Predict the 3D structure of the following.
Amino acid sequence: MVKKVGIITAGGDCPGLNAVIRGIVKTAEYANVETYGFLEGYKGLLENRYIKLDSGVTSDIISKGGTILGSNNKTNTFAIPVENDLGEIEYVDKSTEIVERLKKDNYDCLIVIGGDGSLKSARDYTRRGIPVIGVPKTIDNDVPNTDTTFGFYTAVEIATEAIDRIKTTAESHGRVLVLEVMGRYAGWIALAAGIAGGADTILIPEIPYDLNAIVNKIKQRKEKRGKNYSVIIVAEGAKPIGGDISIKSTVGDSPDSIRLGGAGEYVAKEIEKLTGKEARNTTLGYIQRGGNTGPYDRILSTELGSMAMQLAIEEKFNEMVTLLNGKITHVSLDEVAGKDTEIGAKSSNIKRVDLNGDLVQTARRIGICLGDN
Ligand code: F6P
């Protein structure tokens, strides 16, 4: 029987994390299961820093963004950088000592709330003999085997509001205004918010763009509708045909060392050169990840958290809870994490925008420029 469960919120924070924690803890209390939250994601697991959770601790957190446990998108416990005697950095696998400690401390299961990298580590802990359940988290919506991740629709709501606001100033000044949004190597936020906000052009990583297609769109708006302004949404991972993604920085000890940034600034600069019109970029950044959680994500997070604990109670491990075809259910973590057999491998298995899917087809049918037409 499951009596003690550890919880981790890992990777970049995301609206809905607290609602998931609350859903887990409340469900656990009714079943007399103890819950402990490791602090700052896998870092807290490595350093054995945790707090005891109960419905007092999780009271009134359903609306609050971020995570009461803290998070961290750097620590890969399968490859921790350690300085050796020669002063060189060596990468050491700390997972075996963590597993031994978890077993000694009588943990029956770990619930990992994370994106693709964190869920891959979760799957690797099951291979080391720790029963794990995953919960798909990210504003990027790029986790496979789920209709949507929690946090995505809150981010889309924030990005849509930003487009509404940018549009009125673009119109007043007759400018081209570019909005760069997050999403890493998937264009879900850009595409959904771009459609919701009525953008003229949406650039996503899945469709390398031709600057001339964007210039034509700007000209057409002027010629056909007399509109002297344009709004362009650029996913941070978008790149020109034959060009590269825009990298802001690299982080040495992170499972995904690349931090994207600059794609919107590049598009604004090039469009200004090609059209002679004033173009400005706004990067939405962390605003789209912070603040209160929207009602849809509060509900989805509560359902996923509660189902995660239900699976633990039923001892259905090595699964990820998911929303599939509108139903809360579960799929194997092996399917989600990809086929690689090497424990701690850096490969990722993300869900990118389907070019034949409804969003892309709708955008094309209503005349949004996707950079290739
Ligand atoms: O994966 C979530 C996300 O917010 C991405 O959209 C973004 O590229 C990345 O995290 C930013 O990471 P960091 O928090 O390290 O700046």
